[in-house]
Design brief:
globular
Length: about 250
C-alpha cells in the first residue's frame, strides 16, 4: 500500500534536517556556548551571574530548593545542568522517541476521520501526510527550543518530584510547562519554549495545506503545543509510579 506521498517525504526531510541541526548546534559545547554573534546582549534576558545566587521566584517549586551558585564549571554531578550532547539527545528523543511516535497516531487518526485538513483526504495517504506534518513541526519546535535554550542556560528536561503529594506533583506538571530549570537549581520562565512553539507553528504555514496555513490555525496549534508539553510532563511525572505498580 503506497500511502507515503511526496508531501510526506518532504516533511520527513524537514524533520530529519531539524534533528541533525539540533545535534550539530547543541554539541558545539556546554549550555550557553556558541551563541549567534548577531544577537546583542541587550535584546536577551539577563543570564546567571557567576559566583552569585540568582533570585528565586516566589513559588512553591523554588521554595523547596537550595540554590547552588553558578560558577560556569562542569556540573557533571548536577542534574539541573545540561550539556550540549544532552540537549541534542533531548531534542531527538522528544521528537522521535516511542512516546512521541505513539502519540502522533492519535491526532493523525482523528484528523483523517474528520478529514481535517480537507486537502489530505480520508485514506492512508492522508493519514501519512498528517502524521508526517506533526512530526516535522515537532522536530522543528524541539530543535528551536534546544538551541535557543542554550542562550539562557535552560534545561528543557522535566524533573519529576515523586516526594511531593499528588496535588504537589500536579502543580509541578503545570509549572514546568511554563518554567524551566537553570544550572543553580532555580526555575525561570521558559523563554526558549515561548519562542519555539509559536515560532515553529507559524513557520510550518509555509508547507501546510492552504486551508490551515493561516494565523488563526497557527495560534490554535500553539495552544495544542503547550498542551502537548503539559501532557509529556504528566507522563514523565506519573508513569514511573504507575509502572512500579504494574511490576513492569
Amino acid at each position: 500500500m503506497n500511502w507515503i506521498s511526496t508531501r510526506t517525504a518532504k516533511m520527513a526531510i524537514v524533520a530529519g534536517v531539524s534533528l541533525v541541526a539540533a545535534g550539530f548546534a547543541a554539541a558545539q559545547g556546554p549550555a550557553g556556548a556558541g551563541t549567534s554573534g548577531t544577537m546583542t546582549a541587550s535584546a536577551l534576558p539577563a543570564q546567571p551571574t557567576p559566583n552569585a545566587t540568582s533570585k528565586e521566584l516566589p513559588t512553591a517549586a523554588n521554595a523547596s530548593r537550595a540554590a547552588q551558585p553558578y560558577t560556569g564549571g562542569s556540573y557533571s554531578d548536577n542534574d539541573d545542568y545540561i550539556t550540549g550532547d544532552q540537549r541534542a539527545i533531548w531534542a531527538i528523543e522528544s521528537s522521535v522517541g516511542w512516546q512521541s511516535l505513539a502519540y502522533g497516531v492519535i491526532p493523525a487518526g482523528v484528523g483523517t476521520a474528520l478529514n481535517h485538513p480537507r486537502e489530505y483526504g480520508t485514506h492512508w495517504e492522508g493519514f501519512g501526510d498528517r502524521y508526517g506534518m506533526r512530526l516535522a513541526g515537532l522536530a522543528v519546535s524541539n530543535t528551536m527550543e534546544a538551541s535557543l535554550g542554550a542562550i539562557w542556560h535552560e534545561n528543557p528536561r522535566y524533573k519529576p518530584e515523586p516526594e511531593k503529594s499528588f496535588g504537589g506533583r500536579l502543580e509541578s506538571v503545570v509549572y514546568q510547562t511554563f518554567f524551566t530549570r537553570r544550572p543553580d537549581g532555580n526555575f525561570e520562565p521558559a523563554y526558549a519554549r515561548f519562542l519555539a512553539i509559536p515560532g515553529s507553528n507559524f513557520l510550518s504555514n509555509t508547507w501546510r495545506a492552504n486551508s490551515e496555513a493561516d494565523t488563526s490555525h497557527a495560534l490554535e496549534r500553539t495552544g495544542y503545543g503547550f498542551a502537548g508539553a503539559l501532557g509529556s510532563n504528566a507522563f514523565h511525572e506519573f508513569w514511573p509510579t504507575v509502572k512500579s505498580h504494574l511490576h513492569m
